[in-house]
Amino acid sequence: MILVRNRQQLLSGNKFLRFKLEPHRHIVVFIIDMIGGFLKVFSFKNLCTYVVKNSFQLLAITLIAGLASCSPKITKPVVKTPAKPVEQKPAVKFTQGNISVFVPFQLNKFNLKTVTKAQIGKADMALDFYQGLMLGIDSAANSGLSFKVNVFDSRDDNSQLAALSKREAVKSSNLIIGPIFPDGIKYMTTFSEANKMPIVSPLAASKPSEFNNPNLISVVNDIEQHGIKVAGYIAKQYKADQAIVVLINTKKSSDEQFAAPIRKTFAAKYPGFLVQEFSSTYVFETKMVKGKKYAVIVCSDDAPFVAPSLTKLHKMKNVSGYPIQIFGHPNWAKQTYNIEQLQNLQTVLSSSYYVDYKSKSVVEFIKAYRAKYEFEPTEYAFKGFDVGFYFGKLLAKHGASYADFIIKENYKGLHNDFDFGYDAEYGYYNQHLMMLQYKNMSLMQVD
């Protein structure tokens, strides 16, 4: 028996990626923290010099002034006198993208002179996301647009968000990236709607309907989307008259969130399939029939329930001889189960995160990240890069009207593709999901 943590790979990066290791002249970065009631601008380098060398550089400021425009005046023609030519004013050009970033560094909890590696470790996710994000924006700046990036420590605190949202730098932004966590995103809804400000939710897998913000941009797929994807994939792979779809569902709220959209999708789109539901694999075993293929969906991510269920299903396939294939909860990708059993059961998972470490763009990104930060990029660094590069490119290409093109322009990223839909109540949501299968003792993309 081999127990290993499941590793993910996949997705080739965008062919237009260009990584620059030197400071980019088109980006100015302010790292801003509210301490003691006044605005403090400082280099975050003091926080983690020995942990991340040269992590944050205050880059050269490039300010490009736009030309003002006004309505041209037309002079009435006078008899025997030529008409005064109409003065043509050039249109105002979009020359700088203003981005505000809310990340929970929680600087107020650190003593900048005595900070330890353990304390820095607590901020790993925020640091990794920020570093990847800045590489992404830097790459987008190669298109020629200048960016002003204001980085705020949100502290994972709504009172801090209340103070930050009053800042002119935030109000004048073209885009806000963050907050990271659902509570913060929900808190910023009123500000977003009042200012018609697009806000990117970069990491939360919450349903957009929880926020009711037409300006919200949800990057990570929610559990309902996963359920719909799994149902559609099974319908493509199996014939209704030869297969039975089985849901192993304990009826816990978390399990039902995954099971409900699967059940609903089969009923609405694939009514020819027989769908059965059981509380455990032991109950399921008593109802099995010969001559049918079984697509078994284990709806739980509770390890003490999942592990014995996999063992039971493995025995039912290899001892009893039933043709069984397993479809698991998306969270399995971050959990540890018997990989030999997973592979034998041809286990398939839906996923919004997969990195192909053999792709040229991924290799280039890793080299750039190592050179700049002297660390290996984590999941959050990959996600940060894709967010920064995609939205930076939209701003560079379309200027202030970039939001009109979010649902029109897709993106092939390092960790997932972006293919946004739009709901007038809930905002933009990424529709792209992948299907991964255990092969050769690892997860491989199959759809």
Automatic annotation (TrEMBL):
CDD domains: PBP1_ABC_transporter_LIVBP-like. InterPro entries: Peripla_BP_I. SUPFAM superfamilies: Periplasmic binding protein-like I (SSF53822). It comes from Pedobacter xixiisoli. This is ABC-type branched-chain amino acid transport system, substrate-binding protein.
